[in-house]
Design brief:
By secondary structure, the chain is an alpha/beta fold. It is 30% helix and 18% strand. The chain contains twelve helices and twelve strands.
């Protein structure tokens, strides 16, 4: 049996199993939260926990705070933009294709808690319905395959989905959103890389949240993908007590660049029910971005975005860089707070 399959088979998926590993945890609390959103932690990711309530623990171990919520089941209104099951068509030229309900771990802050772990969230013949919708809509150029985690599917199913998309004439770009390179890096195998490599242009966006997650295993997985010609980007979620610290985020971004993963987004945590305790203030997010600008290569500074509620899409938030603006000049403010004048109009004159 392949190593990654063994890790999946040995996954901790009950309160009792987790309590046996961490006897000081509150079994009754684990059981209550598990009923609302199940536990799933594979042995590899579990091994990264150094102590209770550390940044890895907080991402995967249930917390009673999850039962106190003012959030929403579908905060981004994905279902509203789904004409057929599991294809979200929000932007004119791209769609999100939901193909799997399983993940290597269940993140306690997951945007799709309403679907993840629920086999009924994938209707019968979902692949075919989704592929047919994409085929019929010639305006779609870009498909993001998502879940759950698409890379938890078998090689055969992944190859089927990706090859069918590549056969569709108007599809230019195929992307996969996956936490597998972070949470189950053993799943990135030579055979999987070969399947993806055959379907360029192909991109993967993964999801590192903390420097602890960058290990020898994740480095190998990401480098295998990049060596196959697949650009890998990273989408971090800003989480209270995990990475809402400029120094932690700087270390994470530097380490990502060292394994050839390009920082892409830092997301303000979505308004998902049961995740209030993870969300930070917007000011904290701006402080983190300020802590990156000027202190790390521009390659390592992602966009800080809010995925607007009710399907508003991603909106970039940046620290205040404009002190003032008039017809003659713009006064810019840099990361240190110093101001600089720059002409607001071009010097070129049409009459020259």
């Amino acid at each position: 049996m392949e190593e990654w399959k063994q890790l999946v088979r040995d996954t901790i998926n009950t309160p009792e199993k987790l309590h046996s590993i961490f006897p000081n945890s509150n079994l009754e609390e684990l059981q209550r939260v598990h009923k609302e959103f199940p536990i799933r932690i594979n042995p590899y990711y579990l091994s990264l926990i150094e102590e209770p309530n550390d940044p890895i623990w907080k991402q995967v171990v249930p917390d009673s705070k999850e039962l106190i919520s003012t959030g929403f089941e579908d905060p981004l209104a994905e279902e509203h933009d789904s004409e057929v099951p599991n294809v979200t068509h929000r932007y004119p030229d791209r769609v999100l294709f939901y193909v799997n309900y399983m993940c290597p771990i269940y993140c306690r802050f997951c945007t799709r808690k309403r679907k993840v772990g629920d086999p009924y969230s994938i209707p019968d013949q979902n692949f075919e319905i989704g592929l047919e919708y994409i085929r019929k809509h010639s305006e779609i150029r870009d498909v993001i395959i998502s879940g759950g985690d698409p890379l938890m599917l078998t090689d055969k199913k992944i190859e089927y989905i990706v090859s069918r998309l590549r056969e569709t004439e108007h599809i230019e770009i195929i992307r996969i959103g996956s936490r597998v390179p972070v949470t189950l890096p053993q799943r990135i195998t030579p055979n999987l890389c070969e399947i993806l490599k055959k379907n360029h242009p192909f991109y993967i966006n993964t999801h590192f949240n903390h420097p602890i997650e960058i290990t020898r295993e994740t480095k190998k997985a990401c480098e295998m993908l990049v060596d196959s010609g697949i650009p890998v980007g990273n989408q971090t979620v800003l989480l209270r007590g995990v990475n809402d610290d400029p120094e932690v985020m700087r270390e994470l971004m530097r380490k990502l660049l060292s394994i050839r993963v390009k920082p892409y987004y830092i997301y303000q945590a979505d308004l998902v029910y049961g995740t209030d305790h993870f969300r930070t203030s917007i000011e904290s997010g701006l402080e983190v971005i300020n802590g990156l600008r000027g202190h790390i290569s521009g390659l390592g500074v992602p966009h800080y975005v809010i995925d607007a509620p009710n399907g508003g899409g991603k909106i970039a938030i940046i620290p205040n860089a404009i002190e003032s603006l008039n017809e003659e000049e713009i006064i810019l403010k840099n990361y240190e707070g110093n101001t600089y004048s720059y002409p607001s109009q071009p010097f070129f004159d049409e009459d020259w």
